[in-house]
Amino acid sequence: MADTNDIIHLLRRTEFTARPARVSALSAMTLEDAVDDVMDFSLNPVFPPLPGMDVNDIANRWTQRPFLHDWWLEAMARQPRPFHEKMTLFWHGHFTTEWAQSERNDLMMRQNQLYRDHALGDFRVLTQSMAIEPAMLRYLSNGGNIKGAPNENFARELMELFTLGVGNYTEDDVHASARAWTGHNYNWGTDNSYVFYPQHHDNDAKTFFGQTRNWDGPDIIDEILRDNAAKQLVAAKFIATKLWEFLAHPQPQPALIDELAGVFVGAGMELRPLVRAILLHPEFYSSQSRQGLLRSPVEWIVAILVHTGLTATTTRAFDWSILMGQRVFDPPNVAGWKNNDYFLSTAAVSARATWAHRVADLMRANGGFDSLGSMASGDAVDSVADFFGIAPLAATTRQVLIDAYDAEKTAVGGSVARAITNLLTLTMLTGEMNAPC
């Protein structure tokens, strides 16, 4: 059987939080079987789309936008295998687009579904699909990339941010790729989809990675991810590093990435074997990994939604997530979000505190958690920590919460009711809740 602490760590990194029932079920398995269970997305029902969001409702696009945001957070919180949504979140931050560039809820939902469909599939197929996806065509200007006036935005980011990383291509390669992608455009008419216009495509010879021929856009991706072994290995290391840093900890050792990249290339750039290798690697369960990541705002919000049963809409997650530094469909730029100290600004932490207090007020509605008032202070703290799935607390954290709880109860003008609300709020702001190990 798997070690329970390993299962808790696995679930916190893949399913946003360690739900007690999941911990119990997976602890009875081997670690290999537990990882396979976490990755079994076939157990997820199709999350129902938002009514009317499949069409471009121009008049209501701003009012629809929060519902699209909340729809996805609810999927993260409620799906039986939430790792599906965690991987969708990864691709959303990797193959980045912004709502503000199109103001199209239908296009953002369509792209979101693409990333969900290919979450653990063939990386080359995912990349080819992403390249001609309408939201991306608009975001990186490939939708209007034509012969005689090639636009290099997509060609550059395809290599710099999506597949190879800085230093693994030349400016001539960017220019050749941009020419190859001419004619692969966006239909600005009623269809609003990808369209190939032969008359806009540059059919002249282009030199890409030292090879001169009439390169076409999809050929560029195939060359990087399938046909050029050296570039494929570079791409494999690039993606293995990003996935490791998303799931485990920053700055992995080169030898570890070499090992994972070997698995990725050996699997024909299929993502499932790579991700499985990450989740089963001994380093994934090391102290460095357990202590390596701060929950991003989205991950933290979703964990709280899971434990409280509250909804994204009720808690106004849309309004506060952007102030915390991460609102889905609103990445800061094409490079997406980083991790850890990226989310530790004064404003971001203050926003977490304000939202946590709102959540605590909702939890306290109709006398919720009044029973804590009849407990000894230490028992009340332990009960709340257990509720949020972070028990046992570190001794220092526990004592700070006890002291704050007692101080509010005994202060002039203080009250047990306010002490309980503050305890709930402060527990959500602990290191254990924000960076569980």
Structure description:
The protein is mostly helical. The protein has three domains: 4-227, no CATH class; 229-290; 297-434, no CATH class. It contains 24 helices and four strands. It has helices at residues 4-14, 20-27, 31-38, 61-78, 83-94, 99-102, 105-117, 123-131, 134-139, 153-163, 171-180, 217-227, 229-247, 254-266, 271-280, 287-290, 297-308, 312-315, 317-324, 346-364, 377-387, 395-410, 416-428, 431-434; strands spanning 184-186, 194-196, 206-208, 211-213. It starts with a helix and ends with a helix. 43% of the residues are buried. The model has no long low-confidence stretch (mean pLDDT 96).
Chain-wise SSE layout:
Layout: H1 4-14, H2 20-27, H3 31-38, H4 61-78, H5 83-94, H6 99-102, H7 105-117, H8 123-131, H9 134-139, H10 153-163, H11 171-180, E1 184-186, E2 194-196, E3 206-208, E4 211-213, H12 217-227, H13 229-247, H14 254-266, H15 271-280, H16 287-290, H17 297-308, H18 312-315, H19 317-324, H20 346-364, H21 377-387, H22 395-410, H23 416-428, H24 431-434
Antiparallel strand pairs: 1-2, 3-4
